[in-house]
C-alpha cells in the first residue's frame, strides 16, 4: 500500500532523529534549536518547513525560487520536529550567505 510519509521524508526524519543529542536531558517544555545556515538558494527555508512537519513550500518560512533570496531577515519557527510531540524544536532560518538582495546589474 501507499505510505502517508514520502520515502525521502522518512529517510530524512530517521537520519536527523538518530543524530539528536540525548533528548531526555531536556527539561519539560524546553526545545532544542536548529539554526539553518548556507548559501542563497540552498533550500534552508524549505528544510525548516519540513523539520516543523509541513510540506517544503507551505510552512512558516517563505520559499524562494532557485538562486533568488526570499529570506530577508532571521526568522524563527517553533513547533514539533516532524510533528512528533516527543521533540520540541525551534528552527532559525537565516538569509543566505550569498544574499542576492540589493544586487544590481550595470548596462
Beta-strand content: 15-25%
Distance between the termini: 57 Å
The oligomerization state is single chain
Please report the number of helical segments: 2
Order of helices and strands: HEHEE
Q: Over all CA atoms, what is the radius of gyration?
A: 16 Å
Largest sheet: 3 strands, mixed
Net shape: globular
Order of strands across the biggest sheet?
1-3-2
Total number of strands = 3
Arithmetic mean pLDDT = 77
Unreliable residue stretches = 103-107
Classify the secondary structure makeup into a structural class: alpha+beta
Q: Helicity, in percent?
A: 10-25%
Task: Describe the protein.
There is one protein chain. By secondary structure, this protein is α+β, with helices and mostly antiparallel strands. 20% of the residues lie in helices and 16% in strands. It has 2 helices and 3 strands, in the order αβαββ. A hairpin with a 7-residue loop joins β2 and β3 (88-93).
